[in-house]
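User: Hi! I'm working on a homework problem where we have to compare a predicted structure to a textbook description. Could you give me the structure for the chain below?
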Amino acid sequence: MNGARLGWLGTGRMGAELVRRLLLAGCDVAVYNRTRAKAEPLVKLGATAADSIADLSSREIVFLALGTSDDLITAVLGPEGLMSADTAPKVIVDCSTVSPEASAQVREQIAGRGTALLAAPVMGNPKVVAAGQMTAAVSGPRDAFELAVPFLNMLGKGVTYVGEGEAARTVKLCHNLLLGVVAQTLAEITVLAEKSGISRHALLDCINKSVMGSLFTGYKTPAYVNLDFEPTFTATLLRKDFDLGLAAAREREAPMPVAATVHQLIQGLVGRGYGDADFAALLEQQAESAGLTLVSEHAEVSDGLDT
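Assistant: Happy to help. Predicted structure tokens:
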């Protein structure tokens, strides 16, 4: 086994992939998920099943992968939460995308128990994690970071320490604002090319080979070419991150005209019933706006994430 006894709270699509990487690296991990069945595959890989959130409190480092700010507060500070037990972890590493305010509230209230909080929102989806390409921004006490960084690095291609407090929350929001803007821009140029008689496959192959290509344009290519909107990250979740990001921009008097426009386009996508679809469905919405009916090209294209 590798080092510290670890706990993991939240084994949805993203959390399960991250835990799997720790288990394959030989770590001792106890897991808890509200829907226990989602944790069972990890138990078969060697994880220990916890009966409650509080059961994770004896672990030295506990990772969280939750959905919302309220989930974070309840899971850590609630009457049956992580801090409700007599014991407390040395470090809590929160991999969720939540508001800086919620994170700061948790950080302040757990400090009296000698527990440090690391904000470590991850960047990537489950396929990116499986390919070892996940990254994360991390902020909080430097000594807590040094304790957790060996395990954080096991989760992907490496993490970046960005400072004290909630700095990592802002970095993640900036990342996801860029994510949405690039996705919308990619949808616009793809529709323009198709209306000009160029296949989506050909356009994106060219983009991916150019200086404008990226890991992101590559792994979204199959979705754009073959209209596969099976969610890796839903439109509703992206809307939440734009809500948080634009709220931070307002607080700091930082104008974001392009991101504000994309925010409304994502809102339109949710309003049209695509909330639970992958945000790549922005392509479908853009095509409708241009009077274009899309059909799958049924092309064999790589997502660039060979695992």
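For your comparison, note the following. The mean pLDDT is 95. Strands lie at 5-9, 28-32, 48-49, 61-64, 91-94, 116-119, 122-123, 135-139, 158-163. Good luck with the assignment!
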